[in-house]
Amino acid sequence: MKLVIGLGVVMGICTIMDLINQKIWMPLVLMMFPYIVICLWMDGRNILLHLAGGILASGAFGIMSVMTKGQIGMADVIIIGMIVMALGMEKGILVIMGSLFYAFLAAVLFVVFFKKGGKTRMPFVPFLFGSFLTVIIG
What we know:
By secondary structure, the protein is an all-alpha fold. Helices cover 80% and strands 0% of the residues. α4 packs antiparallel against α5 (74-87) and α5 (74-87) crosses α6.
């Protein structure tokens, strides 16, 4: 429970930072790594398995970030890795899929109601946070 609350607080802060500045303070995100490792160790979970899942998710989204020329920010990549590391692969994938679904809905709303084009930038962390809350609460 400590892990979920801590991750939720940091993601909430990152969401506000991303919405206001469209930038996230990386030391805040990176401070989550030791916190997650300590919480996993205290809960008696397999740290290496969770670490491998986080690295795999970060690597996949890191490649997508390079392929899209930075449309997916490195903070988003690291936060995705931290989510998968903290929650495990199954819940982590649910969070990622949910956030992509929420982003798709927002994109449709922007196109249909606000007549925005395909080049409109949207911060991704709020969708990750919303999906995180949906997976944890639901």
